Each structure stands twice: as structure tokens, then as C-alpha cells.
Task: inverse folding
């Protein structure tokens, strides 16, 4: 009888545990469903913005905490404009990593360059104002000019020093087959021949994820590159977001093209985002659309970062 009573008690205890687990599962499932509604609202908001854009837009968002991806025309190939410089900067830090590993022929951040008049390209707000044959810069100085004012001369010099083929090989190593650097900045003849710099929004966020996850270089180099990309600049992603929010991004623009891609460091919930537009009839309107899409994404991640599983805000937005 005693054994029978013990067995009965154990069965009741097991049933109680199953009931508790069922309630917990139901609560988790309910929380997941409510969060899914937030993502659906984001989708609706982006679709609404896209319907008002006189052009074509693609968006990719990647949750760097969970790995969740949200895509909107994100595998379409777009011209990158200066956003391709993100690949140039990544390869610079990749070669710095290789040099630290003792590999020969790799560029270093500290390699020196003397400004030459023949290297200057249009839209180079910094290098155009330096003295050829006198001013000496490091590769990292050139990278800073690329980020701060998207200096085309600095970008071209780095591309030639790194090697365009090696930039594309780095992208191949990350399986980013649609992101290609095919010409230097302001090479209009190459563009007319179809040698355009291109990418997809999806591949740009995957490149940002690879940087964030230290896949190409050690953490201290990752931190230095992200800090560099966080330099205040004229760009669309940060425009409507809190001023104190860290955003590591690289915008780009050409006639009919506006792009921006970066990491938005929402506390406890950072995300990567790439927004690309083309066939734009109004560049300023396209920039405003990019800013509004970034605002929608930030609101979602900011809400998730401060909320409990039930949606209660546990901290101020």
C-alpha cells in the first residue's frame, strides 16, 4: 500500500510539473505571437513608405542578438554609390589582421602615404585641400576621410593599395557573391560600360554581421572600425534617431541612387540595417524615406530592448 501511495504521489507531482510547463509554454508562445505582430507592423510601415517613393527600394534588417532577418526586396541587386566603401574599409582592417599574423604583402593601418596631385578625384573635400608632395597620411587617416566626408580620392588610394581583386576575394570568402567592386570612385567611363559597384541589402547586413562577430579580424580591430564608422556624418539612417545613439554606418548617393547601411547600437538589442533605393526621381525624398524606415526599425528594437516577455516596459524608452 505504501508503494502504491508513493507511485500515486509521484504521478500527481509529474502531472503538476506538466501543467506548469504547459502554462509556461503557452506564455512563451503568446509572447512570440505578440512580438510577431510588431514585426508585421514594421512590414506594413515599410510598404506604406515604399508606396509613396517615386523609385525602387530594398530593405534588410538583421537582429544581431537573435539572428532574425527581415527582408523587403532585399535580394535585388542595387547600385551602391559610396556605400561600397564599406567593403574597402573592411578589407583594410582585414589586411591589418593578416599583417599582424605575419602575412607578407598585407597593408597596415600605419602604412604611410604622401598626397599626390595625380591621385585626386572629384568630391574629395579633405584631400583636395591638402598639399601634394608634402602632406603625409596613414592608411587609417585615409579611412577616416572616407568615413567623415566620403572622400573619393582617399577611397581610390586605399582601393589601389589594397587591390580591388583582394576586396572582392574577401567578399567571396563571406559568400557575398552579389556585392562587387568594379570601378574606382568617379570613373564615369567604367560606369557607362556597365562596370557598376553593386550589392544587395541582404548581403550588406551580412557583411556588417561578419564585422560585428569578429569573423575577419580580432575584437580590438572590430571596435576600432566600428568607432570609425560611428563618426558623425551627413547620412540618412541617424537623421531621425536619438542623438546619443551610436550608429556605425556608411551612406552613398549618386544621381537616382540613395543608400545607407550600418549597425544601430540599441542597448541590449543592436541591429544591422541596409536600405537601398534606385530609379529615384527625387533624391531628397529618397533620403527622407530611408530615414523613416530606419526610425520604424529603431522603434521596434528599442521597444524589444526595454520590454518584458509580456510587453511591459521595464525601462524608459
Result:
Amino acid at each position: 500500500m505504501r508503494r502504491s501511495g508513493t507511485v500515486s504521489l509521484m504521478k500527481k507531482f509529474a502531472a503538476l510539473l506538466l501543467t506548469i510547463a504547459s502554462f509556461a509554454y503557452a506564455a512563451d508562445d503568446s509572447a512570440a505571437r505578440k512580438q510577431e505582430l510588431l514585426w508585421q507592423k514594421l512590414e506594413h510601415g515599410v510598404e506604406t513608405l515604399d508606396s509613396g517613393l517615386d523609385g525602387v527600394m530594398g530593405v534588410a534588417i538583421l537582429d544581431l542578438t537573435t539572428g532574425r532577418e527581415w527582408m523587403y526586396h532585399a535580394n535585388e541587386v542595387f547600385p551602391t554609390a559610396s556605400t561600397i566603401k564599406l567593403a574597402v574599409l573592411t578589407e583594410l582592417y582585414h589586411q591589418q589582421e593578416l599583417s599582424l599574423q605575419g602575412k607578407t604583402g598585407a597593408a597596415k593601418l600605419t602604412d604611410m602615404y604622401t598626397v599626390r596631385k595625380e591621385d585626386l578625384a572629384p568630391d574629395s573635400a579633405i584631400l583636395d585641400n591638402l598639399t601634394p608632395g608634402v602632406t603625409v597620411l596613414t592608411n587609417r587617416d585615409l579611412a577616416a576621410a572616407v568615413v567623415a566626408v566620403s572622400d573619393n580620392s582617399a577611397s581610390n588610394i586605399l582601393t589601389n593599395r589594397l587591390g580591388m581583386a583582394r576586396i572582392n576575394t574577401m567578399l567571396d570568402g563571406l559568400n557575398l557573391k552579389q556585392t562587387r567592386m568594379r570601378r574606382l570612385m568617379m570613373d564615369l567611363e567604367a560606369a557607362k560600360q556597365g562596370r557598376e559597384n553593386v550589392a544587395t541589402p541582404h548581403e550588406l547586413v551580412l557583411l556588417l554581421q561578419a564585422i560585428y562577430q569578429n569573423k575577419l579580424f580580432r575584437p580590438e580591430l572590430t571596435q576600432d572600425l566600428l568607432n570609425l564608422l560611428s563618426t558623425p556624418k551627413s547620412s540618412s539612417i541617424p537623421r531621425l534617431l536619438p542623438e546619443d545613439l551610436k550608429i556605425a554606418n556608411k551612406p552613398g548617393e549618386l544621381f537616382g541612387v540613395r543608400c545607407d547601411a550600418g549597425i544601430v547600437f540599441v542597448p541590449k538589442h543592436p541591429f544591422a540595417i541596409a536600405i537601398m533605393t534606385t530609379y529615384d526621381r527625387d533624391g531628397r525624398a529618397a533620403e527622407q524615406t530611408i530615414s523613416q524606415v530606419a526610425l520604424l526599425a529603431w522603434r521596434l528594437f528599442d521597444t524589444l530592448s526595454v520590454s518584458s516577455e509580456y510587453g511591459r516596459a521595464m525601462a524608459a524608452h
